[in-house]
Amino acid sequence: MNVYLDNNATTMVDPAVVEAMMPFFSEIYGNPSSLHRYGTASHPAITKAINQMYKAINASDKDDVVFTSCATEANNWVLKSVWIDKILHGEKNHIVTTEIEHPSVLSTCKFLEDQGVKVTYLPVNDQGIVEAHTVRSFITEKTALVSIMWANNETGMIFPIQEIGEICKEKGVLFHTDAVQAVGKIPVDLSVVHVDFLSMSAHKFHGPKGIGALYIRESQKLTPLLHGGEHMGGRRSGTLNVPYIVGMGKAIEIATENIEEKMAAIAAKRDRLEDALLSGLTDVFTVGDRANRTPNTILISIRGVEGEGMLWDLNNALIGASTGSACASEDLEANSVMLAIGADNELAHTGIRLSLSRFTTDAEIDYVIERFESAVSRLRAISSSYAIVQPTAGGAAAECGIHH
Predict the structure, then answer these.
(1) Which domains does the chain have, with CATH numbers?
(2) Distance (Å, rounded) from C-alpha 107 to C-alpha 109?
(3) Active-site annotation, residues
(4) Average pLDDT score over the chain
């Protein structure tokens, strides 16, 4: 049986999304910036997709939703534009983010530090989130931007974005959230939550790869990252990728329709898998309170089993999983998120991320439970150190947001 449990890295494209996209590859193919009928034929579909985006996140029609190539581009755009618009002009020189952001945020912040920007990387608590009062304590009169993810890509832990947004609004500081792991998985309502900029990516909610979007709150200025035309109201140059725009609109519409029901169904499968692994194996731990996690995500650690070895066995069983962020999948160092929440170095090398989707079946969950347990048994049997390092129940792991 083939089982794909790496949906936080990317998702299969929903067949209904593929169907919606197909006419725009070979039938309605004109450049939408052209004035002739071949170009204007795509305008209704683009408008529909934009409306689907607005509805999905409950944005105001006074706000902007600009299509990008991906969320990495959107994250770079916000951070570098704030540097150009606010910091280079001498108004402010400080950005606040967290230690566990996606590499597209952390690497951009490192670049900005090389340009003289002061960046504060906030620590997370033992549940793997940054608390709102911590954010408040590090905002100064020189802070230009706070950039904090809505949900973590490795643990699925959901951050207190509404509280953080209110603090930023009160302090007059711009607030950006990388919502890649939130949009399409949990409700995102921007009529209630104050953010100035929000990044998202279609391939995380069963849309195509290569298309993302940046939400920009009304009146907020951003210097374009790409110059060369008046596309997207002059905010982002480049010929519009019509098939993918259509696909993203359709995907977000499907993902957010009756989202609470979809969440409950996915969470039920996630919880059954997690409960089975925790009860069927010793010295196995999961990270973070599941009540405050995205409903599809488990980050599980197996004492005495290297994460890469576990992935090898799972892959041989035709099960797709990961050791964390897909953008750092070739990095064999200890999991930085697990270290941040206080796990010891050995345990931080064992993390496996299992991320489900609405297409995951009960039969697949049964199969994963069976093969996961057999893989753990095999790998522990050949371990030279596991028998020596077995912790006692209720040891350090239980004290740092890691649950038996």
Answers:
(1) 15-256 (3.40.640.10), 259-403 (3.90.1150.10)
(2) 5
(3) 327
(4) 90
